[in-house]
Specification:
- The protein is built from six helices and 13 strands.
- The chain is of the alpha/beta class.
- The protein has a seven-stranded mixed sheet with strand order 2-1-3-9-5-12-8. Strands 4-13 form a two-stranded antiparallel sheet.
Amino acid sequence: MNNSCYYFLIAGKQFSTNFLTSWTHTIEYLKDENIDFKWVVYYSPILVKTRNTLLEKIFLEDKNSTENKSISSKYKKIIFLDDDIVWTPEQIKILLESEHDITTGIYMTEDNVTTTLMKKGTGRISSSSIRYKEEPFVVDGTGLGFFACNPEILEKIGFPWFEVKLVDNDFIGEDYYFCQRAAELGYKTYADPRLKVGHMKNIML
């Protein structure tokens, strides 16, 4: 195995028909294109535990491997998928082929006004403010429902990759925490307007 392999980390346990359709089409696309991939599923009612455990599984697998290689030498990208996200094979292709170290999809939060994208000082970014964007743009934080990063970032951050922190009397979620840790290491998070995916709790963008 070389670093052309992609590793999918799927968080959740209640997989809707729409999610399963997206995932089935993704597997078909990957096989049709002869793309090497692996995947693992895990769920905990504590989301931060879910995220950390999924990554632990990769590092534990690496530790137990006789190849004795780092995950950055084995995998090209690590992809996070949540069980309430809906996407197309074309969007998976864009996510995998992104030139950026961190790439995220865009989807709505429960208020159906803001997205999961965040900017320092202003909070969540509204869908209307990015409606006409065409090129990937930098954000300070994002949800991890449809997200890819280079594995070397995970190696540099180290465990725990995800935490919930209290900063200035406000809680920072595990997703924003990860993006901030990556930013401290010099990695930018890019949101790609072509990756407007569905969020089953809400509406399609």
